[in-house]
Specification:
Blueprint: H1 2-14, E1 17-23, E2 27-34, E3 40-46, H2 54-67, E4 74-80, H3 83-89, E5 96-101, H4 107-110, E6 135-138, E7 141-142, E8 148-150, H5 154-166, E9 171-174, H6 184-196, E10 201-204, H7 205-208, H8 214-244, E11 251-254, E12 260-262, H9 263-266, H10 276-292, E13 296-302, E14 307-313, E15 316-317, E16 319-320, E17 323-325, E18 328-330, E19 334-335, E20 338-340, E21 346-350, E22 356-362, H11 381-388, H12 405-419, H13 423-449, E23 457-461, H14 465-476, E24 480-483, H15 490-497, E25 500-511, H16 517-537, E26 545-554, E27 561-564, H17 567-572, H18 575-590, E28 599-610, E29 631-636, E30 641-648, E31 657-659, E32 662-665, E33 670-673, E34 678-681, E35 687-690
Parallel strand pairs: 1-4, 4-11, 5-6, 5-9, 9-10, 13-23, 23-24, 30-32
Antiparallel strand pairs: 1-2, 2-3, 7-8, 11-12, 13-14, 14-15, 14-20, 16-19, 17-18, 21-22, 24-35, 25-28, 26-27, 26-28, 29-30, 31-34, 32-33, 34-35
Helix pairs in contact: 3-8, 5-6, 10-15, 11-12, 11-13, 12-13, 13-14
Length: about 700
């Protein structure tokens, strides 16, 4: 016994723990990996909306108690949070003022005159985050070439500062015309505000995202300032809590672009982490797909409040700009994710016309679905799964939740009474509506991307992804589903395997020609220096992977497309290769290109990437051992109650297989496998589901 204790102590001493954490609407997920032994520990803890971050300490304590994770041996700590995006969605940010050019005070209100839904007679734009009476015009003007026509009127700045403070502003956004070309005027106004009112925080649009088009640049800066105090306060508390628990690792944050940055930068560059949770999930899924040799994946991340979808092509996540943060577009690079308000906690209701509807309102973590027994009384998607019999056969969330079947039946029964239908049929209708809502959103994603989903494998994750993923795949005509070993913590895993990544941009706005190449090259060299300095500030001492690209268009077009470039083309001045890359990209996106068309280059971009740790999960040799069900249980499968097999995930060995319908239970989720599917466990411990041809 003494020898075993000593051996365990030695193993703990030698551990190199790396922890990824992701906060969702209902749970905070933990994924811990000992890089030396390959041992993986995972955990879910209910969120505490009234005290964000408190659940983090609870999770670290439970990891220590249950898994022997010593906080002092944590060498990497990566955190994704929803504090920023929730602040925008709930409109709980601080009061801001906007200082812009006199005569351009209505830029935010006009918002390019676009409507969220141009085909709806009842559509309206959201109220701006900064009301019109908090927008102040400053006499100042730059010409389009960056030369100064009129210097900023500092007396007007002083009057605007006094008025903004009188109206309760806690921060100021400075966004002036053409600051993408010359940021001097914004810097001068910012310095004057800081001198006059040291208590106000100030962000200029050029320091947040120096890109052409004043609306996009201004709105991105506003989003950054709107969430700044809450995000900064949260991250400061995070660092203090980690220090108090003896965690030596520097806190790192997941970013919207799928990369990482340190917490110190996150306090200022808040806009870069608004989509950190959804991006982390896609990065984690990409890593798992590459491990399994899957090159085309549709991800399905279902949490308590939403379902998120993304495409992984050739093992890589797809990127874009203009992702929506609540009701507002974000114009910085981010992992392309489509979302819909359908999650495990989405509430079902019957409207005034007697029609059953699901979501987008969610029960969240407090009170949660009725079956959680935490005070929820309204039926949710999770309650419908319980009533049908797919859920409720084991504790959930690592033993933190025990399903109360009677409470779920009572909640769904109230809707059944209104509809005049049996309880099971009502529950099935809730599930059918949830799947159909997701089907519509996925079809939109496939159409925009020009892909055939029949060529893709669905990867469901999150607490709710495995519950509904196979049913969605069946409706989409997809043939394969790949469920990872720990689907409930894939977003937390994404933080563990992510690289450092900083995105940088300069607007050059020039025709693509031999004469313009030297200026383009100088812009890229400046971005490269900035990228290397950024990586060094993050503590990265290894090689820098610099990935250049350009936003290009044909002369006369209103908008541009991003075209990846090879560094050798820039170094060698290979304009033909750059032109060819643009034509090919335009052809792929629009099925058209003009080989004789004049090309304009609008922005030069560069991603500076510092590779993360080389991690891997252990693989297990496959055998032909049959899967043995733990027991059989009654499930309403859509038409009738059937007796089907239930399997425990930890008892399934690589190579073992079985047929649906079936239920697979595990510590972080439950798999619902419809009839006709064949299941098999691979050497990576993924559960592979296939439909018959």
């Amino acid at each position: 016994m003494d020898g075993a204790i000593a051996r365990k102590a030695h193993e703990q001493h030698e551990a190199d723990w790396k922890i990824g954490v992701d906060i969702g609407g209902t749970f905070i997920d933990f994924c811990a990996l000992d890089a030396r032994s390959g041992r993986v520990a995972s955990l879910k803890v209910l969120t505490t909306p009234d005290d964000p971050g408190a659940e983090l300490m609870t999770g670290i304590t439970l990891l220590a108690e249950r898994e022997g994770v010593d906080p002092a041996q944590v060498t990497r700590f990566v955190h994704g949070t929803t504090v920023g995006i929730n602040t925008i969605i709930q409109r709980k940010g601080v009061p801001l003022a906007l200082f812009t050019n006199a005569g351009f005070e209505d830029v935010i209100e006009l918002a390019r005159l676009r409507m969220p839904d141009m085909y709806s007679l009842f559509c309206s734009r959201p109220d701006p985050l900064i009301p019109r009476d908090m927008i102040f015009g400053i006499p100042a003007r730059l010409r389009a070439d960056g030369s100064e026509s009129r210097s900023p009127d500092m007396e007007a700045v002083a009057r605007a500062v006094a008025a903004a403070r009188a109206k309760g502003a806690e921060g100021v956004i400075v966004s002036l015309l053409h600051s993408w070309r010359n940021a001097a005027q914004e810097a001068a106004v910012k310095a004057e505000i800081a001198r006059l009112a040291p208590g106000l925080f100030v962000f200029s649009s050029a320091e947040v995202w120096p890109v052409i088009r004043e609306y996009e640049r201004t709105s991105t800066a506003i989003l950054n300032g709107y969430v700044h105090p809450r995000v900064s306060g949260y991250l400061t508390a995070l660092e203090e809590r980690l220090k108090s628990r003896g965690v030596p690792a520097r806190a790192m944050l997941t970013k919207s672009n799928g990369g990482l940055m340190n917490a110190a930068e996150g306090k200022r560059a808040c806009v870069n982490m608004l989509l950190s949770g959804t991006a982390s999930g896609v990065i984690g899924a990409s890593w798992l797909a590459r491990q399994a040799g899957e090159d085309k994946i549709l991800t399905l991340d279902i949490g308590g409040t939403s379902a998120d979808f993304a495409l992984i092509i050739d093992g890589e996540a797809q990127f874009g700009t203009g992702e929506l943060i609540g009701e507002f577009p974000l114009y910085i690079p981010s992992v392309s994710v489509s979302s819909i308000g359908i999650g495990g906690g989405s509430i079902a209701s019957v409207d005034a016309q007697g029609v059953l509807r699901v979501g987008p309102e969610s029960a969240g973590s407090t009170p949660g679905p009725a079956c959680y027994g935490r005070g929820g009384e309204r039926a949710t998607v999770t309650d419908a799964m319980v009533v049908c019999g797919w859920l409720g056969h084991s504790d959930m969330a690592y033993g933190q939740l025990r399903i109360e079947v009677d409470l779920a039946r009572r909640a769904v029964g109230e809707l059944a009474a209104k509809l005049g239908r049996p309880v099971e049929q009502t529950a099935q209708a809730i599930l059918d509506i949830a799947v159909s809502e997701m089907f519509v959103e996925v079809e939109k994603l496939a159409s925009r991307s020009g892909v055939d989903l029949r060529d893709f494998t669905l990867m469901p994750f999150g607490g709710g992804g495995p519950m509904l993923g196979a049913f969605l795949a069946r409706e989409l005509g997809m043939k394969r589903v790949m469920a990872p070993r720990r689907p409930g913590v894939v977003s937390a895993l994404g933080g563990l395997v992510a690289d450092l990544r900083g995105d940088f941009i300069r607007t050059v706005f020039t025709p693509l020609s031999k004469a313009s190449l030297p200026g383009i090259g100088e812009a890229f060299e400046a971005l490269a220096r900035e990228g290397r300095e950024w990586l060094a500030a993050q503590g990265h001492a290894g090689a820098a992977d610099l990935r250049p690209s350009c936003d290009m268009r044909y002369a006369g077009q209103s908008y541009e497309i991003e075209v990846p470039l090879m560094p050798a083309w820039l170094a060698g001045g290979d304009i033909a290769a750059i032109e060819r890359a643009f034509h090919e990209t335009h052809e792929r996106i629009y099925d058209f290109h003009d080989p004789d068309g004049e090309i304009e280059l609008v922005n030069v971009r560069l991603s500076a990437v510092g590779a993360g740790p080389a991690l891997s999960f252990p693989q297990v040799e496959e055998t032909d051992a049959p899967a043995t069900p733990a027991r059989r249980l009654p499930v309403y499968t859509g038409r009738d109650v059937e007796t089907i097999d239930l399997y425990d995930r930890q008892d399934l060995r690589p190579g073992s297989g079985f047929h649906g319908p079936a239920v697979v239970v595990q510590e972080d989720t439950t798999f619902a496998i419809p009839a006709g599917m064949q299941a098999r466990v691979d050497r990576h411990l993924n559960l592979l589901l296939t439909f018959p041809e």
